[in-house]
Amino acid sequence: MQIEFKNVTHSYESNNPLSGLGLADVSCKIEDKAFTAIVGKTGSGKSTLVRHINALLKPTSGEIKVGDRVITPETNNKNLKPLRKQVGMVFQFPESQLFEDTVEKDIMFGPKNFGIPEEEAREAAHKMIKVVGLSEDYLDRSPFDLSGGQMRRVAIAGVLASDPETIILDEPTAGLDPVGRKEIMDLFKEQQQNGKTIILITHNMDDVANYAETMMVMHDSRLRAVGTPKDIFNDQDLLDKKLISLPQSAVFAQKLAKKNFKFESLPITINELTAEIKQQIHGE
Amino acid sequence: MKNIISMKNVTYTYPEAETHATDDISLDIQENEWVSIVGRNGSGKTTLTKLIDGLIDCDSGDIFIDGVKIDEDNIWDARKNIGIVFQNPDHQFVGATVEDDVAFGLENQGVQREDMIKRVDHALQMVDMQDYKKRDPQSLSGGQKQRVAIAGVLAIEPKIIIMDESTSMLDPDGRRTVLDLIQNLRKKQSLTVLSITHDIEETQLSDRIIVLKSGKIVKDSDPKGIYDLGPKLIDYGLEEPFTSLVADGLRDELGQEGYVNEEGLIDQLCKLNSKM
Ligand SMILES: Nc1ncnc2c1ncn2[C@@H]1O[C@H](COP(=O)(O)OP(=O)(O)OP(=O)(O)O)[C@@H](O)[C@H]1O
Ligand SMILES: Nc1ncnc2c1ncn2[C@@H]1O[C@H](COP(=O)(O)OP(=O)(O)O)[C@@H](O)[C@H]1O
Ligand SMILES: [Mg+2]
Ligand SMILES: [Mg+2]
């Protein structure tokens, strides 16, 4: 499903002048089956942007197309189920999407809500809990008696269980330990290879470099740049204005460049970095 | 140096849980130390800090804060010295506006109104949230919530600050700013920092890293001692330091293995590059 934003503006509570614009005139296309990362400072509008895709927020002006569905300021809350089935979202704070008294019921809620029979939903729960790195023992526990990282995993399992076509992840790895983070990022990549569209909000530039094909940069409620991670991380103007930070490999390359190395463009992954260093050392 | 926090054989099990969340932990933290607490999800980090703050009572063992053994009667006094920033800031917002929220802790301490306003403003300025004073905390972005939660704790000027992944939703610049801020405060006043984090870069700022696994302390050392563990770090749920990953990719060129710091690695690479 292709997603398209056309001149989308969102102002939170128009009667409260202190809450400024959430989004200002954003236009973009998010490609079907691609892995897109959204980056930007705290409060730049990332969450506001993605909440329009499943109509949790409606635009104040402009429109969003999700497949053949069009969301406008007039869109009401009726008949949103098909859209919500297609577009799954892992929220920034996982607790906000956990509410049942056991983990199993919690993961089953989505599929059941979308009309999947009880037994199938249960199977999905048993499968997904393992996929996110927890054992089946957790299914009987209350989701509120879990550690932060465990809750995060349950929230992710709940979204995957409904098998949405598009998966939106709002800082999904905040709170995961690094080993868990890598496992979960690999899982999202695998989902993409199985034909899903992945939209990831993150502050981890290494994850952007390693996993994303397209990168969008938000700043002050505006979309300031779209491109491949390689191009964006090499965009001097964005760097000068401090709109982006660099992955570790690029930072390291900059340090080498101050000595006797030369980089035509900054490497953004470890593999690119070491390949580049090898070439220069061996004088090819 | 005196111990500001001391735990002796502390064990805690959640009701109905099969395993101990904290398992016979003994630990001394000195005044002014910056200690990182790391470990895999569910290893007991948050539980440890809840015990220190008296939010839960240990099943066995003793906890001393600033030399005083904690019990039911004195926990409220002890807690005045401890500022805790929770893993999810939503759990600590009580005020209808950001400034009320930050003022809440001061009201509890009986700070006079005039002084209170000053301290609230100052705390919000420190985290760069002064423009959001009148906003409902629930309407903030995730990272903004984290900043306000930090301001709320800074305002009460605690002796001990506990941060439970408190910068996890800040952009890299914002994270550095907050960490620098804490670092600078420590230069001006006595402040002990206990920081739970999964960010290896952040641990480099600390004096000491404690690694938890299944409720037990499995490592306790200065950062270098931890990074030297190399690939073993993964067993503890930590990332290998970036320089180790680079060195690993250049094993043939460097002809050695193990942890090298950044400076060392850059030096070696530059030498190799000029030789050939
Ligand atoms: N309220 C609770 N009731 C029962 N068990 C709990 C509760 N809170 C945590 N636990 C369990 O205690 C263990 C330690 O949890 P804790 O929250 O201390 O972990 P943590 O190290 O902070 O993890 P994370 O990195 O995921 O935040 C986990 O196995 C968790 O499931
Ligand atoms: N419910 C809300 N009411 C009013 N303002 C909001 C609300 N949610 C977010 N905002 C504001 O909109 C801006 C963008 O927020 P958000 O999209 O959450 O940022 P982020 O890029 O960190 O995800 C911020 O200034 C934030 O304070
Ligand atoms: Mg957000
Ligand atoms: Mg925790």
TrEMBL record, chain A:
<keyword id="KW-0472">Membrane</keyword>
<keyword id="KW-1003">Cell membrane</keyword>
<dbReference type="InterPro" id="IPR050095">
    <property type="entry name" value="ECF_ABC_transporter_ATP-bd"/>
</dbReference>
<dbReference type="GO" id="GO:0005524">
    <property type="term" value="F:ATP binding"/>
</dbReference>
<comment type="function">
    <text>ATP-binding (A) component of a common energy-coupling factor (ECF) ABC-transporter complex.</text>
</comment>
<dbReference type="InterPro" id="IPR027417">
    <property type="entry name" value="P-loop_NTPase"/>
</dbReference>
<dbReference type="InterPro" id="IPR003593">
    <property type="entry name" value="AAA+_ATPase"/>
</dbReference>
<dbReference type="InterPro" id="IPR030946">
    <property type="entry name" value="EcfA2"/>
</dbReference>
<feature type="domain" description="ABC transporter">
    <location>
        <begin position="3"/>
        <end position="245"/>
    </location>
</feature>
<comment type="subunit">
    <text>Forms a stable energy-coupling factor (ECF) transporter complex composed of 2 membrane-embedded substrate-binding proteins (S component), 2 ATP-binding proteins (A component) and 2 transmembrane proteins (T component).</text>
</comment>
<keyword id="KW-0067">ATP-binding</keyword>
<dbReference type="InterPro" id="IPR003439">
    <property type="entry name" value="ABC_transporter-like_ATP-bd"/>
</dbReference>
<dbReference type="InterPro" id="IPR015856">
    <property type="entry name" value="ABC_transpr_CbiO/EcfA_su"/>
</dbReference>
<dbReference type="InterPro" id="IPR017871">
    <property type="entry name" value="ABC_transporter-like_CS"/>
</dbReference>
<dbReference type="Pfam" id="PF00005">
    <property type="entry name" value="ABC_tran"/>
</dbReference>
<keyword id="KW-1278">Translocase</keyword>
<keyword id="KW-0547">Nucleotide-binding</keyword>
<protein>
    <recommendedName>
        <fullName>Energy-coupling factor transporter ATP-binding protein EcfA2</fullName>
        <ecNumber>7.-.-.-</ecNumber>
    </recommendedName>
</protein>
<keyword id="KW-0813">Transport</keyword>
<comment type="similarity">
    <text>Belongs to the ABC transporter superfamily. Energy-coupling factor EcfA family.</text>
</comment>
UniProtKB/TrEMBL annotation, chain B:
<dbReference type="GO" id="GO:0016887">
    <property type="term" value="F:ATP hydrolysis activity"/>
</dbReference>
<keyword id="KW-1003">Cell membrane</keyword>
<keyword id="KW-0547">Nucleotide-binding</keyword>
<dbReference type="InterPro" id="IPR050095">
    <property type="entry name" value="ECF_ABC_transporter_ATP-bd"/>
</dbReference>
<dbReference type="GO" id="GO:0043190">
    <property type="term" value="C:ATP-binding cassette (ABC) transporter complex"/>
</dbReference>
<dbReference type="InterPro" id="IPR027417">
    <property type="entry name" value="P-loop_NTPase"/>
</dbReference>
<dbReference type="InterPro" id="IPR015856">
    <property type="entry name" value="ABC_transpr_CbiO/EcfA_su"/>
</dbReference>
<dbReference type="Pfam" id="PF00005">
    <property type="entry name" value="ABC_tran"/>
</dbReference>
<dbReference type="GO" id="GO:0005524">
    <property type="term" value="F:ATP binding"/>
</dbReference>
<dbReference type="InterPro" id="IPR030947">
    <property type="entry name" value="EcfA_1"/>
</dbReference>
<dbReference type="InterPro" id="IPR017871">
    <property type="entry name" value="ABC_transporter-like_CS"/>
</dbReference>
<comment type="similarity">
    <text>Belongs to the ABC transporter superfamily.</text>
</comment>
<dbReference type="GO" id="GO:0042626">
    <property type="term" value="F:ATPase-coupled transmembrane transporter activity"/>
</dbReference>
<dbReference type="InterPro" id="IPR003439">
    <property type="entry name" value="ABC_transporter-like_ATP-bd"/>
</dbReference>
<keyword id="KW-0472">Membrane</keyword>
<protein>
    <submittedName>
        <fullName>Energy-coupling factor transporter ATPase</fullName>
    </submittedName>
</protein>
<keyword id="KW-0813">Transport</keyword>
<feature type="domain" description="ABC transporter">
    <location>
        <begin position="5"/>
        <end position="239"/>
    </location>
</feature>
<keyword id="KW-0067">ATP-binding</keyword>
<keyword id="KW-1278">Translocase</keyword>
<dbReference type="InterPro" id="IPR003593">
    <property type="entry name" value="AAA+_ATPase"/>
</dbReference>
